[in-house]
Write a structure and sequence with these properties.
It contains 18 helices and 22 strands. The protein is an alpha/beta fold.
Amino acid sequence: MSKLKLGGVSKAYGATVALRRGDLEVAAGEVHVLIGSNGSGKSTLCKIAAGTVRPDSGEILLDDKPVVVSGPRGAKALGIGIFYQELSLAAHRTVEENICLPDLPLKAGLFIDRSELTARAARYIALFDGVTGEGFAAETPVGELRPDQRQLVEIMKALATEAPILIFDEPTSALDSAQVERFFDILRNLKAIGRAMVFISHRMDEIFAIGDRVTVIREGETVGTSRISETDQSAIIHLMVGSREDLAPPAVAPAASTTAAPSLLSVRGLSGQGFAEVSFDIARGEILGFGGLHGQGQSAVLRALFGARQVSSGEIRLNGESRKVSSPREAIRQGFAYVSGDRGRDGVIQGRPILENVTPIHYLRKGLLLARPAALATKATPALEALRTKYAGLSAPINSLSGGNQQKVVIARWLINRPDILLLDDPTKGIDLAAKSDLFTLVRKLADEGVAIVLYSSEDAELLNNSDRILVFNGGSVTRELKGAERTRYNLYHAAYEAA
Ligand code: ADP
Ligand code: MG
């Protein structure tokens, strides 16, 4: 008998089909692994089970009886708890408040019962005793914690639901090995008391260490379920990517014959926190992709090249001359541009007009402290129009735009003063399909005009479709280079997962 069963669930967002057909069955006392490449629909499937996404079709059965999971409250009432990949924590609240947040203990039905809250949270914090790391305490605001510590709080929050069904969507991506070990001990105990669990991870060693069964999802469709004891890594990778034959390299042949062109940027043995011994060359007109599992050093290298992260050793040569890039300001002067998909942190100046958001780079490169807005507007307008940005006027606040249009403003900045090297750090995170396609058309046009582009994308399809060459990252280093006909999904996954 299955505890939880999803049958033929689907979900589309406009033209994007996030989930075509999801089938998943989880038994009590089981850790059921869900695996699939970036963008294959894993999180969507989990969110449907947890009531945060309403499916377009399909059914959900609990103990073999059809149910409707109406919102997170509905899920809680049905006994389904979830660890969200993007975390669901309140930054200004403390660790203990976050753990109890979905259901704060109240006194007289009105006031938070502090001592009860502290006592309840302490039980879950204690589970990770010894591995939470420095600066972690029940009273610490979550905003002050490191990424791994926040992930631990999200785990504690999911555990505190005491739900019979627990879904963990990539809970270990930021954890160190001691933390993962502890988490697995907890999962084993939960298994023993009959909990049904879904576990998503990209790491093969983890899957084989903790899983009972594995379901593979490919392009929005679950394609097979096996017992872990009856399968192996290569069978799983095969299911994930399909057969070699359906996976011809993308038809868009790279324009640049890159071997002949002299390199514009040459990086040798670059090392720093989160990356080691990274070497590559890139020529004008080339789009070099950074691939691999999320968080394998790709962003760290891009930020280091932009002077936003320290380099401990190695060499960066620009046009054959050795360069030291010690700050973003200097990087910009040397012709670097950096666009991150994390608009909140790196991109837009919240609450300020679009014009100000388009032009800061212009000031920097020209060394100007002030410029006349009217003069800037004549530069900004064509740049925004080239990107088909939808905006009411240059004085409208940036926040009035959709995510995709905000991202276009961030890119438009760099069109006013064309860079030599454009660093794209997962630039399309959270933007819609039409905006993505506009962005990549523009990126290719910039390359054709002689800009050297480094692209990191967390969506494999996007990376394969837009890169002339791909460096696969693993554990902070480049483990494989895919050129020409080698740029297939099959090769990309093999390189990304096999070493993992
Ligand atoms: P995974 O967790 O396997 O990486 P997701 O379920 O997050 O995949 O996403 C599947 C696809 O659906 C991706 O192409 C993603 O860009 C898209 N998608 C997910 N959520 C949304 C959303 N809220 N709006 C638009 N597209 C989305
Ligand atoms: Mg996901």
